[in-house]
Amino acid sequence: MQQSNNDIQGYKENVIPFIPDGDFYFTKGVEAFQKRKFDTAIKWLRKAIEAAPDNPLYQCQMSIVYTEIGAYHAANQLLDEVLQSTNDQYTDCYYLLANNYAHLGLLNDARKHAEIYLNKAADGDFREDAEHLLDLMNIDEEADDEWEFDEEDELLVYQEAVFHHMESEEWEKALPLLEEMLALFPEHKLIKHDYTHALFFSGYPDDAIGMELDVLAEQPDSLHSHTNLAIFYYETDRMQEYKQHIKTLLNVYPIHEQQKLRVAVTLARTGVYDLAYSRFQKLGKQQLKNHLSYYKWYSITAYQLGIPSKALSLWEEGCKKHPVLADDEGPWNV
């Protein structure tokens, strides 16, 4: 017997459509995490956060996934946002932050957050873990440990100063600080990448390229080496070598926002504006507002692609946050 259109319409009216909500995506994300399928877990949890951006539980779980894959900075950024948006109500965030800082070697920050957690949640789920973490940092806390904490604080001071000079392209100020850092903290590999970058733009391209190639020989997958060498070769018109490194970057999608920015800026600086623009669009502005390079190169990219209104908006916002950017006279003068 053939059904009429009216019958079919009646059935359709009685069907309740399935519309996934945040809890559905969150559950799928947790299931993937438990199976150690971290890429899948991140995709589901992103959907959960998009569906319910004010639910701190989703962001906390995402931070745990980031911690598991070693993206400690990205994890901490989420946890800080949760604490800020909930007025410190999610006290577990303090232990998770302490754990991440310990992995990063920032022991003062690890200690501080573990102590805050115990003060706020004496009977919390992570009480034993926090106490154990503090015990580990208290073992033999005499001269050697005090020196280590002092060194850590000194490194952070250097890093903050170098970051400011590098973002402002003040190479003559960054270079001597980086030379001191190489001598004081030889175990910190990232310092050498900043050093070669400052060296190149200080007028020593051959030395910079040679040093970066030596690092790449030891670490063939180094993102920082590939971004630096792509820029170095592009600036020196060695296009065959440039293409080798830029091709590598096209297949790289980092998790950490600062690394994502590094790839986007490299694409923009070397004229690959269409791909740079798509990378910039996916960046979290709140996590990068202290980066002058974000506003500068995103604005330049938008202008080069014929989107002047967006370029101007980005440039004006960047100049408010970073007045030195105004010295560049706008994206149209690049």
Automatic annotation (TrEMBL):
Presence of keyword Methyltransferase: no
Higher taxonomy: Bacteria, Bacillati, Bacillota, Bacilli, Bacillales
Sequence ranges of the TPR repeats: 22-55
Pfam families per record: TPR_8
Keywords carried by this UniProt record: TPR repeat
Residue stretches in coiled coil: none
Annotated protein name in UniProt: TPR repeat-containing protein
Source species: Lentibacillus halodurans
Gene3D superfamilies in alphabetical order: Tetratricopeptide repeat domain
InterPro entries to which the protein is assigned, alphabetical: TPR-like_helical_dom_sf, TPR_rpt
Methyltransferase as UniProt keyword: no
